[in-house]
Fold this sequence. Notes:
single chain; alpha+beta; four-stranded antiparallel β-sheet
Amino acid sequence: MTKSVNLYLASGVSEGVGFWVVDFTEEDNIFNSLCSKLLECYRKELFGLEAAIAVKAAINTTLEILCLDSKYEKYRLDNYNTGYSSEIPINLIEDIFDLWAYNYSNQILWKKYIGLLNLRKKIKKNNKYINIGLKGDIFEFATKLDGLLSFRPVNKKFRLDQSNDLMW
Length: 168
């Protein structure tokens, strides 16, 4: 029997910079972890240790892909040593957390979803042609994942190359 841990999504502040973090702990009170830099907990789910490691890795990979895609499109969503940029909206991070936490229960589909995530990571850019060959649950999951990864900041201050914008 594996021990149970709490997988959580929380916000925190380190050196005046806000961040999001996905991690797990054996403690019921997650604020005892990360040297009390955490401010608020948004999601907390009980998993076995191996499941928590797998779900955390999937969530973090999804967030890394989101940040890389944003960078390729010349938007700045910085990763920090402690977590992810606080510029990512909470509803998006909650949706990513829920997507992976909910889908872990079916191990057959989970392996397919992880394979799809790894393929998406290698491609570096959303490619609609991949989804043409998918069917059923995998197609629905790929559509949800692409929808989550299509986020770009609305505010122009995050744009790195503002010189290419039209004047009118």
